[in-house]
Amino acid sequence: MPDETPRFTSPAAPSRPCGLLRRLLIMLYDTVVVVALWMLTAAALLPFSGGDWMAGRDPLYTAVLALVWFAYLAWSWRRGGMTLGMRAWRVRLATESGSLPGWRQCAIRFLTSLVSAAAAGSGFLVALFDRERRTWHDRMSRTSLIHQPRSKRRKP
């Protein structure tokens, strides 16, 4: 019988690859956090913009918002392997060796995930057909999302 344990697991904790639905729910949770951070950023920049800057129209402002988005994700991944959405759904990000990703891996993951989404979501949809449920950005950054179910506690 072949070993069905994914490569990105720690022997200490039972885990399995994160499925597409769980990924989408994590993104929904994290969208709330990112939008809040964007609102704080917009409020902080208001005295400088006079209220005239618009994301998508003003390249510098758009770049600042993208940097805030990246900073939230990368800081979370580097700090503990989880964003707030990932914590809620008991998912962590790990490298192929099981460690936390570096800044370069975070940048590759972030940028490739934008391509994954921009290609009509096909970079995400490949997880449905991949044995390890990995997306384009998982493969490009050599990382993976690992679902760690709650441990069953023994009653005393």
Automatic annotation (TrEMBL):
The keyword Cytoplasm does not apply. The chain crosses the membrane at residues 24-48, 60-77, 107-129. Its main location: membrane. GO terms for cellular component: plasma membrane. Keywords: Cell membrane, Membrane, Transmembrane, Transmembrane helix. Coiled coil: none annotated. The keyword Glycosyltransferase does not apply. It is a multi-pass membrane protein. Residues 19-141 form the RDD domain. It is found in: Cell membrane. It comes from the Bacteria. This is RDD family protein. It comes from Elongatibacter sediminis.
